[in-house]
């Protein structure tokens, strides 16, 4: 039998959002998907606890969050190193750990990556909107208390705590499976959309020049700064936009559209990032170097299947 548990939010930080796998089947209503920006790290947070991969996790962006345990529980922490501590003692990511009543879990500033993921047995409890608890602040959907609201000081994060002894044997994510957020990001991109409309030199520059992350980045999109890409496609009808679509507006600087993107767009597209590339990009701070590499759908699908089967399954 499960019992209720909770963590109290002592300090909210700039942005901490509840995210499950996302909101699907509603794009015709103009609603975006939401979900974890780094689905790979979020998946490992659930895998370490034996949760379903879609179980809600807490996405902590940049840091500044502190939580106090009201009940004993086991948690998992994956993704970015945000200088986490438990009662002042360092806590490295990519592992399962325990908290007891009164213990304080705090996050400082990013040391490597931008987004950490906090998992709980059975997943965090939230308000379901259109079939998902994924928190999308712009649309006022989902979250731990509904309305698309991020965590605020004084809130309580509730969870249906499981009985002990039901976790996978692995307490840490194998080192070989942890992303290195400090190295330049090499992102697979499947050419498509209006790629044939870009001039040859622009295509060469796109895949042979180093890009950097612009300061204008959020859950909707991440801008890249680099050579000016020129597209001969002067006018187009707005079309559906998938996660990871790389649009190029008139200034020639690509925008990688992420989880909270709009549902349609009218800028020419260079292509679409692979799922793993999108997860890696979500951890890149402003100024981080990025390289695009062209790849096909077959290799992207094989990569996806390989990563999924890395996770322990009960």
Write up this protein.
By secondary structure, the protein is mainly β. About 10% of the residues lie in helices and about 30% in strands. Strand 13 (about 210-215) and strand 14 (about 220-225) form a beta hairpin. The protein is globular, with a radius of gyration of 20 Å. About 45% of the residues are buried.
Q: Name the average pLDDT.
A: 92
Shape: globular
* Alpha-carbon distance between the two ends: 19 Å
Work out the helicity level.
Answer: 10-25%
Beta-strand percentage range? 25-35%
The largest sheet, given as strand count, sense and whether it forms a barrel, is: 7 strands, mixed, barrel
Summarize the structure.
The protein has 314 residues and is mainly beta. It has 4 helices and 20 strands.
Ordered list of secondary-structure elements with their pairings:
Blueprint: E1 3-11, E2 15-19, H1 39-47, E3 57-61, E4 66-69, E5 73-81, E6 85-86, E7 89-90, E8 95-99, E9 104-106, E10 112-119, E11 156-161, E12 185-191, H2 200-208, E13 211-217, E14 221-225, E15 239-240, E16 245-247, E17 255-257, E18 264-265, E19 269-273, H3 275-281, E20 289-294, H4 297-308
Parallel strand pairs: 12-20
Antiparallel strand pairs: 1-4, 1-11, 2-3, 3-10, 4-9, 5-8, 5-10, 6-7, 6-9, 12-19, 13-14, 13-20, 14-17, 15-18, 16-17, 16-19
């Amino acid at each position: 039998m499960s019992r209720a548990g909770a963590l109290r939010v002592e300090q909210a930080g700039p942005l901490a959002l509840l995210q499950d796998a996302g909101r699907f089947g509603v794009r015709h209503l103009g609603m975006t998907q939401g979900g974890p920006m780094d689905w790979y790290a979020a998946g490992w947070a659930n895998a370490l606890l034996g949760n379903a991969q879609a179980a809600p996790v807490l996405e902590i962006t940049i840091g500044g969050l502190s939580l106090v345990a009201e009940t004993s529980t086991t948690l998992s922490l994956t993704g970015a190193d945000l200088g986490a501590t438990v009662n002042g003692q360092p806590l490295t990511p990519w592992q399962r750990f325990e908290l007891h009543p009164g213990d304080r879990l705090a996050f400082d500033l990013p040391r490597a990556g931008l987004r950490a993921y906090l998992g709980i047995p059975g997943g965090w409890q939230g308000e379901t909107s259109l079939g998902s608890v994924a928190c999308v602040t712009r649309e006022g959907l989902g979250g731990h208390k509904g309305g698309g609201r991020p965590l605020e000081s004084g809130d309580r994060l509730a969870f249906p705590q499981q009985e002990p002894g039901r976790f996978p044997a692995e307490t840490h994510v194998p080192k070989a499976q942890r992303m290195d957020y400090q190295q330049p990001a090499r992102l697979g991109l499947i050419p498509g959309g209006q790629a044939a409309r870009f001039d040859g030199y622009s295509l060469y520059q796109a895949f042979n020049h180093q890009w950097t992350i612009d300061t204008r980045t959020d859950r909707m999109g991440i801008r890249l700064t680099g050579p000016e890409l020129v597209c001969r496609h002067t006018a187009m009808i707005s079309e559906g936009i998938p996660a990871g679509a790389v649009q190029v507006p008139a200034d020639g600087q690509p925008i990688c559209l992420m989880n909270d993107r709009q549902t349609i767009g009218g800028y020419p597209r260079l292509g679409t990032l692979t799922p793993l590339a999108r997860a890696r990009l979500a951890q890149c701070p402003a100024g981080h170097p990025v390289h695009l590499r062209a790849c096909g759908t077959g290799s992207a699908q094989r990569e996806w299947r390989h990563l999924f089967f890395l996770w322990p399954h009960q």
